[in-house]
Fold:
Amino acid sequence: MPTIRLPAERLADCCWLPRIIDKTRSFLAGELPFTYRLAFGSPIGVDGYFLRHFRITRGGFIRAVRAAGNDEDVGKWFLAQPNVNSDQIARWNRDAPQLGAKGQAGRAVFLAVRWLLYPRDFRSPSKNMFAAIEQDES
Structure:
């Protein structure tokens, strides 16, 4: 499996950005595993929340990663987007780790897909999507 960074890792001080970059590179190389391809850019998954929060299209993000030489180039592109600023990044960094938690956005989706996408969650249920991903991939 390709290396995909964990959800809390940051680039341009933004969590999830390194992860979605890794997923995009793996997608472009045809190496993204099936279950990851199902969720890649999905409007109901964390990718979709990320893209909507910053008002970036999936296609635009893919083009940016394809054109970038490295993470720093993607980070510069990201920071140059009209709806990306320090306040939006701070809000994302506060809210995203709670996606899927009780009373938070994404709860119904998390409960519906957790057994399929996060197999280790069956033995030890996680409280949110970030925790389920970290548990499943560590």
Observations:
- Helices lie at 17-28, 34-39, 46-53, 58-67, 71-79, 86-95, 107-117, 129-137.
- The radius of gyration is 14 Å.
